[in-house]
Design a protein that fits this description.
Distance between the termini: 26 Å
Order of helices and strands: HHHHHHHHHHHHHHHHHHHH
Number of helices: 20
Low-confidence stretches: 462-472
CATH topology: Growth Hormone, Chain: A
CATH superfamily: MFS general substrate transporter like domains
Number of domains: 1
CATH architecture: Up-down Bundle
Number of strands: 0
Length: 472
Amino acid sequence: MARAGGLHDLGVHVLLAGAFLPIADFFIVNVALPTIQASLKATPAALELVVSVYGVAYAAMLVLGGRLGDRFGRHRVFLAGLAGFILASLACGLAPTINALIAARLLQGATAAMLVPQVLATFQATLPGERKTRAIALYGATSGIAAIVGQLAGGLLVSADLFGTSWRPIFLVNIPLGIIVFFASRLVVPANRSPHPAGIDLPGTVLFAATLTALLVPLTEGHSLGWPAWTKAMLAAAVMLAMLTAMVEKATEARGVVPLLPPSLLSLPSMARGLAMVTVFSVGFGAFMFVFALTVQNGLGANALQSGLAILPMAIMFFIGSVVSPRVIGRFGRAALAAGGIIQALGLGLLIGITLAGWPRVSLVELAPALVLIGAGQSMLFSGLFRAVLGDVPSHLAGVGSGVLITLQQSGLALGVATLGTLYLALEPTGIAQAFATVIASQLLIIVALVLCIGLLPRFNKHQGHAQPVEL
């Protein structure tokens, strides 16, 4: 069993490995979508559901997952979530039909939501000072790297066609990796829970999950189905549910009970402004990863392996940027975030120019310089936003704060696929290059807006300023 006491560096890395798997799984399917479509005779709408239903379940359950960890023990809930994720991955890998795959992805997202919040919450609750700052920076780096490596690994596994299993290893690979993390965490991760755990806010949980579902499902399916009446009704319901959720949460906190989404926590400047920026950033990032894979395969004729390798320059620079970002941000503060955003914006602009100028004879090598800039810039912005959001969260609300952050990050990723991904699919028949450029231009505008808003973030405090570089 796990020891009681402090969390050592090995435990930090084991927890990060546990978080890596669910984050990578959101993106690993992107390069496999054409193969899944052919294998299971799936419609475009069903393919979008394979991606988005995972994100909806993940986002809807994350805050509840954080609350369960605070109450019943973060390590215990981490292990339970990991075990469920392994079983759900097995169900995905063995799915005989597209509907079975969608159902298994729903379960996968729900179990991931039990697992992931415990990582940041454990860091917040068990690590002191600079070690906490480094661990949070590592988590931000892991999130971004998992997204990119997930897409790369998806291409490698689909192309390998191990034993004629086609796309199925992208899910089955989670089983041995998950088992290793499960037993390693039992040895090196200490048991911990909140000293003052809040109760389960059942009304808030149900209302919040219903709000996300009512928003994301019609945005994902509306275009492909021709926007039937039920999609418009769900969007209208999402607005009303959001208002009702806010009212219920405010009333719950007024009674002295900690709600699912505490208004007092969300009103902290670091949380309110930082969360909005993380969400918007994630919309662009989720859309980019989705449309890049489709454009490279459907537009440039690359196979799944080539599509995965195409993202490698971005992955390498994101990794390097994540290693140096704590020291750079500690020294230059918000200016480092602005510089990262500007570098990413330059990369996105270059990517648009290369694509439109050379289409349809654009080589994957020609895309590399733009991807290098994108990876380097967004690593700085990504890590800094995570630090800004969690800087003022009290330790007894670590699970709640972590759950809210990851929820809005995941909601943004799913919303990016549902909105900008749908825009891409709508424009694709008129020209893949133009559709791709339109979505990338949308992300470019998002990054420019974020750079202009960085001054609204609280300054990084002096202690954060002395953070050490991330050690991987």
